[in-house]
Write a structure and sequence with these properties.
The chain has 706 residues and is of the alpha+beta class. It has helices at 2-7, 11-31, 38-58, 63-82, 88-105, 110-130, 134-163, 166-173, 181-204, 294-303, 378-381, 404-414, 419-433, 447-455, 460-473, 533-553, 557-580, 586-616, 625-643, 654-664, 669-683, 691-705; strands at residues 228-230, 243-250, 262-268, 270-271, 275-277, 307-313, 324-325, 328-335, 346-349, 355-358, 365-372, 435-436, 457-458, 478-485, 488-489, 495-498, 502-510, 514-518.
Amino acid sequence: MIGRGLRGMTLLAAQRWAGSLALAAAFAACAVSGELGGAILLLFSAALVAAPLFQKRIAGRYEWAWTGLLGLAFVALGGQVVAGRLDVVLAATQFATLLAVHRLWHRGSRRDEWLLLLLSLLLICAGAALSAELLFGVCFLLYCVTATWALALTWLRFEIEAARSPEQAAALLHGRRLVTPLVLGALAALALVGLLGSAAIFLAFPRVTIGGLRRASSAIPIAGLGDRIDLSRHGVIADDPRIVLRVRLDPAPVAGAGLPMRWRARALEVWTGRGWRARQDGWGGGIFLAPMPQLRIAAARHRSEPLVADIEAVSGFSEGVVLTPEGWPTSVSFQRPFTARPSETRLLRAANGDLFYTPVDVGDLHYVVRTERALPGTEELRGRGRRYPPEVAASLEAPAEVDPRVRALSQRLTEGKDPVDAAAAVERWLTRSLTYTRELPGEQKDPIAHFLFESRRGHCELFSSAMVVLLRLAGIPARNVTGYYGGVHSSAGYWAVRAGDAHSWVEVYVPGVGFVPFDPTPPSGRGGVDRGLWSGAVLAWDGLAQRWRAFVVDYDLLSQQRTLQQLGRTLREAGRRLSAARPGAPEFRAAATQAALGAIVIVLLVALLRRVGGRAQPRVALLDGDQRRAQVLWRRARTRLERGGVSLTAAVSPREAIRRTVQRRPDVAPAVEQLASAVLAARWGGERLPPSRARALLRELRRRLD
């Protein structure tokens, strides 16, 4: 069905559609970044669909209005760039899109077609700057094929128009025999061969990123994962399968059903009456990590090895926030592809210990965190007293108005106990007595009391909020912490933490140890639970995207060196095995069998392709003697005319040759007209052309030229 439709397409229609498809693929490469905005998307889509239908009514009209609108757009976008409100790459992409929309509506001449192809090239370059992710790679592949079609067909169209008379050019442009599936397939194969050659150069040519063109960044850390918790929301918490972190751990855990690990984002310590918000006391922590308390150092020395987490934070989920695995972070280093410039990313520590980074660049962030996971045992945590430093005062502030039942429950669970035992008792009671649900309770006068005594079911934020309030009422410093819990192992070799794994837990301060994590949410409610088909598809796609980033986007000089070294080792190993394989040896027989099978497969494929190609090609009738004689006569006549000053190419038809001869050699025109008529009659009309008549016609032409 597709092949029949393509055979029915004229050259003119195919050329215009190829140009439109190339432009659409280039625009899609920019649109996948999600930064162009709804207005630009709607405007381009409308022009792409409506311009072929209404172009004849609009083309050439209101040029002053179009020019004025483009001028206003240029001034507006330039002003936003100067004011720092718009990235220069994004502004240039939007303006190039507006130029493309203008050309789509006023498309007709050779200049218009080449301008459209030039704009498509600019847009594909802009797409690489906006977002070089896997979807961009798909759009780039489509662009390579469609742009090759557009270049070839555009060149062919205007060559025909230049070399033929208007009537002949119209006949060819509106004919349906030039653009066939075989022609388009050959052009697509040529594009893919060129792409493979470019990939080989990409892999082998030394790569060092200069870093001259960088996307705009924010110098102020952004509050990732939200800087507040609202316990009065309605609805149901969605189990979002999108990937937010890609993690590789050393030592590597066993790849099983899930990763039982918390990923800390930030602490929310101030009660608002309806939830929690972050402290507003700035960046009092400085730019260095807090020193680890002595009890933690002793525990780390005797009980465990440090955990090293290589983390890729996906853009759009945690901008500005450094997520760390459970434990005490001892170092954070930011990773970038090998460039001529050092990394500009800096670490910031808030007064409460939360970690942030600046500047916030567009795109994913890659960093490595080293943590000490060991905690002192329960016996060592007990007896640390209740002398708390001033910096934890915010974690002691209890709500001003508390339901008496909440205060009584706090007293019953904590009275007479060491703070660590009290925290464990509250955690144990919440986990065993209440039920987890993703349904949100909606607006409640006292969300904590409603959760503890009325609904007795809730999500992780209610569990952690209730524990913090119960402990603060007992004079024990505690705070709400947000982040993620868990991870799913990917086929690409990393642990994927998903948006649906968002979680909330509690940190309790113990003098001499620091904040210690507790999690009152039942284990079944920690992290995401979706393991369905859609979740698996998202994970598989992310694996492909990660490989694309590793082998294309972040492919630097060091990666290139490792790739070439691996290739060298593979070739040496192959050479060693071949040298060791002698006739009669098992290795030799195995290699010979594989080579024979490969040769058979190649022969069968070639035969199949030739068979399919033979069926796809139209049968061409053999020429008879008169037709062959007409071809030879016209070729010799054209050579004589070239010597006589009438320039004729092989593409010039006999009718066009008569017209040119009349203009340049009127005295020769009668002989040319007589010869051309005989050629056309014998070649296409079925008339006889004896050898004697052919020789007579050629002699007459020679006599006129002399």
